[in-house]
Amino acid sequence: MAQTSKQKGRFLPIILFLITYILVQLYNYDFTVFGVSLALLLSMTGIWLLFKEYKLTSPHITAEFLNVDDLPDRQFQQLLVPIFQAQGYSVNKMKEHYKSKADLVLRKKGVKAIVFARRQTNNVGANAIKEALACKSLYQASRVIFVTNRQFTEAAKQEARANKMILIDRDSLEALLDRYLRHKRTHRFIQRVRTLIVNEEVKEDS
Fold first, then answer.
1. pLDDT at position 55, please?
2. What is the 3 state secondary structure string of 15-51?
3. What is the CATH number of the domain that holds 103?
4. In what order do the strands lie in the sheet with 104-108?
5. What is the reported pTM?
């Protein structure tokens, strides 16, 4: 993906040069043709920007489009940061990542929780739950949260229930992501409305 972006960036100056050259030639050839071509170019640019904005803000965009399974471990952990922040937690990421260590530390109103984010191909078993619970005293945490892109086995669920551990499986994760995305879109819309109102008030005052 990064190589594709670099390739696009490499051809951008060439494309801009060709567009500028064509516009200059059209301007010298016929001003009317130049004006029509420029209007079409601006219209196409506007349509592209609107389409790009639609992809980011459309209500049809859900967590399924994020391809959680394809994310590297660090990006999977980073994905959880704004979700917990939206719930009022302050979030600290661990600098070093070990399979038996917590990935995130959450704090809210004196409550400290540790988060284990595991992106894997198999369902999470009871052993992984026990390893996470063993770190509770190490971090002096009152809560343990385990997040995965898969499901939990029945043995894992029983172990978690017995120790009051919070489990977030794939379905719950997608629900949290969808809720966060909807909230983000709503907040963005409200900010735009406020900006429009302020701009109108400034125009009236002037």
1. 47
2. HHHHHHHHHHHHHHHCHHHHHHHHHHHHHHHHHHHHH
3. 3.40.1350.10
4. 90-93, 104-108, 111-118, 143-148, 166-168
5. 0.60
